[in-house]
User: Fold this.
Amino acid sequence: MSKVIFKARNRSGSGSAAARRLRKAGRVPAVIYGRKGNPIAIDLDSGEFVNGIKGISESTIVSVDIDGQVHDAFVKDTQRNIRDGNILHVDFYEVEGNTLLRARVALRIHGNPVGVREGGILETPLHDIEVECLPKDLPERLDVDIAELKVNQSIHVRDLNLGSGVKLISNPDQVVALVKFAKAEAAPAAEEAEAAETPAAAAAPAAEAEKKA
Assistant:
């Protein structure tokens, strides 16, 4: 996927009235926050932004071109109107090329596990992990192939291929995907049914003894 580039303009006006005028003109007010220096107030074309963010994840680095000055950044927050879903405001977080960053990377699970075809149940409790690396090494997402996963087998965070220069921050023992044996869930129910029958069976001889008495 090629890098997404947003064309932006420096924004001088502030306040709700100025923001409403921008939105009416088809623009979205936004701010770029950096590790140092003051936040940069900008505005973007609304349609271009909506199209640009399709398919990107929380760990996707985009470029914001402000009148020829390019800033690499994450899209950290997007505020929407709860009535019509239109974007009201965007927050970017700038990244520096030679500075380590921490980010959450989405996991994309794919494949039909062998264990599921044999009657097992698939569980995928984890959806992303935290890593540390330079911006150039940050994976947009991590693909996890679970096709060979058999019953009572699992994939852990430590099993993932993070790529060169990427350090794992999340707990390596966390489970990404596992296939459980479906019949194991039915066993407790069978035990409960057997326990319920036991008192009734014991009551029969007692009743017979009373009749004889």
Summary: The CA atoms of residues 9 and 67 lie 6 Å apart. The first strand starts at residue 5 and ends at 10.
